[in-house]
Give the backbone structure.
Amino acid sequence: MAAHTDNAIVIKAPFDLVWQMTNDVESWPWLFSEYASAEILDRTGPTVRFRLTMHPDENGTSWSWVSERTPDRETATVQARRVEPGPFEYMNIRWTYTPEVGGVRMRWQQDFQMRPDAPVNDEAMAARINENSVTQMNRIRELVERAAAGVAERPAARVGPDLTGTNALVTGGTRGIGRGITVALARAGATVLACYRQDVDAADDLARELKQHGDDNAVLRADLSDPDEIDRLMAQVRERVGTLHTLVNNAGAISHIPFESLPVDEWHRVIDTTLTATFLLTQKALPLLPDGASVINLGSRVATVGIPLRAHYTAAKAGMVGLTRSLAKELGPRGIRVNVLAPGVIDGAGITAEKRAQYERLTSLGRLGQPDEVADVALFLASDMSRYVTGETIHVDGGI
Ligand SMILES: NC(=O)c1ccc[n+]([C@@H]2O[C@H](COP(=O)([O-])OP(=O)(O)OC[C@H]3O[C@@H](n4cnc5c(N)ncnc54)[C@H](OP(=O)(O)O)[C@@H]3O)[C@@H](O)[C@H]2O)c1
């Protein structure tokens, strides 16, 4: 058996606003009444992968699953599916946006099948979806129409530092943790430049998101394993913003190779991209760093505990700690703070279910970290709230 639901509503608001608000997954806990949180796990091209967690049900259970959606602005459609189907055999959702006089018709078509052991069958789930779609669509219509009338702004999710008037550079800002930090800094009001090496789709996607926070934000290409490209990048940074209040040395390289067969080229690739690039970038950035600037170097929990097959990576990350300690002392008299932000295992693309379960068991909090949880600590280090913190390594690892 397969089931199908089809629901639609007309929202009286400009097309772009409807498209933008309903595709801003991070705002879904506000836009929908049923979600307690929406955590972005990965962005690859236009596709966003995210974990939705519902408010606890009557038994106190908070249902949570991973979904994926790919918006296509040209065809005004979104193809979505549950990556973790849970009680469903599968669940696919197609969103269609059709302009109408004075508004937009937003349509949700859901195709699914329940598992034989699911607590409800196809028919009951279809009834549930139909009822809930009316509730959610009405809420969304109301919020979007109020935003169109200028009377409803999405409330600030949390109070955080205000970085308005500051400039930041985040290396490797287009994916994973770097993207989380880039977006968090931009949301906090900073003008952010992010660099990447090769993934143009991820860069374009970030550029689109950054535009929402200010026209001066930009995404620049530079391969940091090449000192000439670092020079070129810093010349662009100088030209675009002149001063850098926050420098986040985030880009890094990793591979898994037994020590006995680790080629020297691979040793250099990892050390160059991680440690040498941090040295060169920070050195070239010095003339741009004002009194009170913050340098944040991404380290790793494994730098202090070690891990098999990653001798080159852990050596680079441990080197980051020494570099940071010395720079904190050397640059402290100029009021520049330098710290290491050392994540544990952070959720992202490429973690197998088996690895996830293994890491979850090792972590005190019983789950992987999210990029925004690392970004929150980066916000702290970028802001005045950490004005007396330097030379420090802050682990953000859920107690692994
Ligand atoms: N993820 C974790 O669990 C974890 C744990 C501990 C520490 N860390 C550290 O946190 C940092 C970010 O990790 P992540 O897992 O979020 O990384 P990621 O998802 O692999 O993203 C890496 C980013 O760095 C860029 N990049 C890679 N090599 C580059 C180069 N040579 N020049 C310029 N940019 C380059 C990539 O750009 P392209 O996509 O264009 O190549 C991308 O934007 C790294 O320093 C990592 O060692 C991560």
Observations:
- The mean pLDDT is 93.
- The two ends are 44 Å apart (CA to CA).
- The domain at 167-396 is CATH 3.40.50.720 (Rossmann fold).
- The first strand starts at residue 3 and ends at 11.
